[in-house]
């Protein structure tokens, strides 16, 4: 009798574990599908997907939540680029180059502020206003990138890469929001 009871409890336990595992697997699959769906129209979907998956909120995010995560990645990128420009400006001695780099730093700092406002507008369902502010923040990067190229400013390749990722995330956020 004791063995039968122990086997019964073991079977119930194993069944409950397998049901929980199956349910969890479907939930993750649904989240993965939504992430893929929202990011697929981005110019570089892999950048969007990597950003979204890096945030724990993605496990329970709806499409607006995914857009908010991409804006958060974008804001973090603006903050990092601003800090990197500050560090770069501190070691540059040429006055014109220093001014260009400091202009980039200011632009990325302003972009970070714009992206914070964009998140608020997104939460308030002002999608046109959200995209407008993302576009303003993107223009800061475009202006910086053009100045760096026009004046042949020597910028570490990792910063150029980070600027490209910033552009890709901007594109992804605006394309996701366009479909709301």
TrEMBL record:
Q: Does the keyword GTP-binding apply?
A: no
Which CDD domains does this one have?
A: PMEI
Which keywords does UniProt give here?
Disulfide bond, Signal
The record places domain Pectinesterase inhibitor at 30-176
- GO molecular function per UniProt: pectinesterase inhibitor activity
Signal peptide positions on this chain: 1-25
Question: Which SUPFAM superfamilies has this protein been placed in?
Answer: Plant invertase/pectin methylesterase inhibitor
Which Pfam families does the record cross-reference, listed alphabetically?
PMEI (PF04043)
Q: Does the keyword Disulfide bond apply?
A: yes
Q: Hey, which family's this protein in? A: Belongs to the PMEI family.
Q: Which NCBIfam families match?
A: PME_inhib
What is the protein's given name? Pectinesterase inhibitor domain-containing protein
Protein's organism = Hibiscus trionum
């Amino acid at each position: 009798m004791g063995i039968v009871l122990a086997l019964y409890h073991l079977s119930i336990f194993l069944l409950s574990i397998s049901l929980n595992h199956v349910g969890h697997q479907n939930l993750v699959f649904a989240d993965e599908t939504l992430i893929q769906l929202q990011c697929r129209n981005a110019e570089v979907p892999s950048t969007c997907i990597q950003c979204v998956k890096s945030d724990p909120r993605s496990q329970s995010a709806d499409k607006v939540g995914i857009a908010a995560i991409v804006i958060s990645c974008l804001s973090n990128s603006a903050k990092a680029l601003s800090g990197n420009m500050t560090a770069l400006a501190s070691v540059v001695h040429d006055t014109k180059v220093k001014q260009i780099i400091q202009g980039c730093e200011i632009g990325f700092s302003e972009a970070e502020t714009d992206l914070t406002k964009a998140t608020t507008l997104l939460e308030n369902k002002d999608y046109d206003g959200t995209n407008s502010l993302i576009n303003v923040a993107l223009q800061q990067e475009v202006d910086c990138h053009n100045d760096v190229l026009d004046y042949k400013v020597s910028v570490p390749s990792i910063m150029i890469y980070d600027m490209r990722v910033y552009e890709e995330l901007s594109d992804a956020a605006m394309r996701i929001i366009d479909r709301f």
